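Write out this protein's structure.
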Amino acid sequence: MNPKDFRKIYDVLVGDEVSKEDVLDGDIFRKGSVSVYAGNNIIHHGLATEDDINNGLADLIRFMNYDNLPKLYKNLYWALLFLNTSILSMMEMVV
């Protein structure tokens, strides 16, 4: 698995629901950072660049291939890091 595989999954899951003005603008993901707001307060900053997203996903894949941790710990870490690195970072528009 590599970062391009994550993009394929993204396209299958939500590709048809993304409006033309919100289509990802990078080679795989988005080019720049996004933020998630609750009212006027920023509650999450996405990773700054597409390279940061790719590196984060590559780190996540390497971690999941590490065999010296219990699967429960790996799965919890996967869920948290994937959400932070991938889903929020793929978002093109500010929510």
